[in-house]
């Protein structure tokens, strides 16, 4: 792996520069995605249509598209010889990243019950994103990110870690609620209840937004901030779309429930 990067980049400074450029590109893509999502929903799940390509089994799609975000970073960490990979703060942040993607790629897909097939276009975009972002986040953390020795005791890191943990727990719990809405053999949609769904329609999306925002605060880098911004754009749009869909479909949908931010929005 080290030989590969030596062959691709003329120096570590060049690779570090490329990683920064990738972060700004991700922020630009967040802006472009925001404009696109003003006119159309992300085409998967209840918004899937055939015009975005042939359908891919939902379990297979989630497993394959998320797997690069786990496998590639594993290789990056194992093959990294940089001193940063052994620093406490770096290890904490890398562990936070893996905690999400071990669940998302190796556990979550096999817990899905039913679910509409994913259009190939959405599947392919997610696959490419997981490669791109997996390399961006973990290569930076394992090879380049430098933190003060006491960074894990810094208020920013502590606050970021707490936010990340709360977001991760909300995300996992909300997914659990959604999976168990229907009894075996039942079809159709139901109103989710319990947990943060008592306050917002997009509880699972809120959890993931908070999770990566906390990660960005703890990691304190343009790389992690770009990821948090992109996550916010995509998932906040989806939360709003879900909220409108629930209100239109269910006459008895709780009117006090907001789309994404409890009591506010």
Secondary-structure-based class equals mainly alpha
pLDDT < 50 stretches: none
Distance between the termini: 46 Å
The SSE string, one letter per element, is: HHEHHHEHHHH
Query: What fraction, in percent, of the residue positions are helical?
Result: 55-70%
Question: Using only CA atoms, what is the Rg?
Answer: 19 Å
Q: How is the largest sheet built, in terms of strand order?
A: 1-2
Largest beta-sheet characterization: 2 strands, antiparallel
Overall pLDDT, averaged? 93
Q: How many strands in all?
A: 2
Quickly list its features.
265 residues; mainly alpha; two-stranded antiparallel ribbon; 2 strands; 2% strand; 3-oxo-5alpha-steroid 4-dehydrogenase (NADP(+))
Give a structural overview.
- With 265 residues, the protein is an all-alpha fold.
- Helix content is 65%, strand content 2%.
- It has nine helices and two strands; from the N terminus they run ααβαααβαααα.
- The radius of gyration is 19 Å and the shape is globular.
- Residues 117-265 form the 3-oxo-5-alpha-steroid 4-dehydrogenase C-terminal domain.
